[in-house]
Amino acid sequence: MVVDIYKKAFEYMRKNFADSILFVISAAVLGFLSIALPILGVIIYSYFYPSVVSWYYSKVTGENINPDYKTSFLSLLIPNLLASIGIIFILNGITSVSVGSLASAGYMNLFGLTGYQYVSYNPTLIIIGWAIIIISIILSILLLYTFYGSILGKVNKLSIYFEKSLILFAYILLYTIIASVILAIIYVIYALTISINYGMAIFFILLTIFVVPTVTLVALLKAKEL
How many domains does the chain have? Predict the structure, then answer.
């Protein structure tokens, strides 16, 4: 059963390669915005990503689905918003002070230079930030079925489906590990025969082009069965 899901997802991706590339590009742009624009970027990502996923699934499978975008939006927004807040806490807990700004007050380093920066840490803020991020990761796993189920029209309210979400997580994790091992072997071959940098470039390109869309399809196909 596990192998059948993986094979079907890969076949859908292979037969619709151009659409898969468009999906990867769209997902990458939204992912970049979620990181580059704290809070606002997360809202944009959570709002538009479900539409991108539903479009991709309908395109490659030919199925008509009726997504509940409100539920999918909330199931993405809550954990990702927590993660964004956690990152803000961590960044606020790490501050740098330029020596140049202290020179006017009569401070100098041992070499009489003013171009260095001292980095100071606030452990409390950093710990709080990481705690929030860990909570967001756990919550995102527990909401996996809520998200993919709402894309398929099987879920119409924000709720935690513990067992189904863990099953989806196991399928996603196992597929990612298998794909990464295969790509790592390809990387080693290219690294030994051509160059390490070239092998690394091939690894990340293949990881992005093949793994991202197939992982999404694996999750949707399994969610359809649950």
Answer: 1
